[in-house]
Amino acid sequence: MRPACPAGGAPPPDPGAGALPDCVLAPGVRLRPVPELSTCLAYVPGLPGDGAGGGRPALHRLNVSSWLIAALCDGRPPEAVADAFARARPAPADAVTSGTDLREGLRNLLAIGVLRTRHGDSPGPDCPRKETEP
Amino acid sequence: MPPALLSPPKISLGVTEACPLRCRHCYADCDAAPKPAELGIDAWMALADRLIADGVIQFYFEGGEPLLKPGFPALLARCARDAMTLLRTHGTLIDDAMADALRAAGVGRVLVDLMGACAGTHDAATGVPGSFAASCAGLRRCAERGIATDALVILTRQTAPELNDLLRLAAGLGAERVGVLRLYPLGRAKRRWDELALSLEEQMAAIRGLDPPPGLSVMQSWHPYDRNCCWQAAAIDATGRAIGCMYLREYADFGRVAGEGAVPFLDIWRHQPAYRRLRAGTGIERACGDCAGNDGSRGGCRASAYAFHGRWTAPDPFDEALNDGIDLRVLPGHARG
Ligand code: SF4
């Protein structure tokens, strides 16, 4: 079973097949790269109005691959995300593996509320991506 | 070896040393009134803005009792907009309105201190009749609102026999986790050490006897989880001193980040030599292989090590593998203060 969307909306679409989902950072999410540790912290704020237990604030630790995906979901179209990911991603660099990892990464980031699909299954307005460099 | 991090992702803020309780072990030696030199809420707001701009993405608020600080909910809400927030409290001030305010502020996690599993033990520790019931009610109110809520308990002679009852109590109130914390020789705990402290053998027996109910997780910092987390530690006390960690409040003063003679926290982080050495962890004399294997840190807690040995590089006597026969019920002369 796919996890419910922690942002409190409908479950994220399954990006397991077909076109890649069109994802952007979810409202209020803040990325905090920690390059010294090869990681990026992602803060997902709780959203007011969610039921008990839903929409809780959380701090996630992203690995390099998830960090890259979150950084690439800056409003560019999904094909551009895929291209950039295939180029920037460390080995193995073959297209099939890269595509699979991107789908998996998008799925995970949607599930933990770091990303949302652009046209709508998380509540709230678009929020510009905020980053703080260490 | 340089410290691992160029800037701190996480920080603890001891926003006040005022508290309505009179705990016999209070590390901050709190009073009902704030200390005269404490930073006001505007100074904390400005500091929070600066820290967030410099990359802090998690705030851990403690005290004293943070909820006694005038304007605290606004500070919490400001930080929660951009960072994970954890609030350590004794919970007695969390009535329905405060629980609603915490939820509205977007608090990430509330950690409620319990000093026993029953009113007799807890209220004797706090010196305030009725505080047990109020703490339990505060914890329950947070959990009922869907706020991630933990209970904390300091392992002492008084709490040890009640630990498993406390785990069941906490689970029943809606806590998701219980943190069992070691006792530090700070503030009033230092002066009443004989009455509070257990030997390491007694502590380990209590830890090994923990039997949490299903669904409740337990955190503990004894072997094999005795971390030296100083490598990432940042803390500011109520008067604006950078002290590394709240457990170092009596041992470290790396400079002021607010008030007269203040410098930006990031400058202290990057340039203060003693702070850099502490975070780099260089020269640690001995480390426990099992604990080091857990997260790559070495030597265990620096506050405990310093308290008992008077050396920053000493092994942590709260770790079985590093204790060297030290009786933890007896504070060495230099630590008695
Ligand atoms: S003094 Fe102890 S608890 Fe505090 S940061 Fe250092 S190792 Fe961690």
TrEMBL record, chain B:
GO terms for molecular function: 4 iron, 4 sulfur cluster binding; catalytic activity; metal ion binding. SMART domains: Elp3. It comes from the Bacteria. It comes from Roseomonas acroporae. Residues 5-213 form the Radical SAM core domain. Transmembrane segments: none annotated. Gene3D superfamilies: Aldolase class I (3.20.20.70). Its cofactor is [4Fe-4S] cluster. PROSITE patterns: RADICAL_SAM. InterPro entries: 4Fe4S-binding_SPASM_dom, Aldolase_TIM, Elp3/MiaA/NifB-like_rSAM, PqqE-like, Radical_SAM_PqqE_MftC-like, rSAM, rSAM_sf. This is Radical SAM protein. CDD domains: Radical_SAM (cd01335). Keywords: 4Fe-4S, Iron, Iron-sulfur, Metal-binding, S-adenosyl-L-methionine.
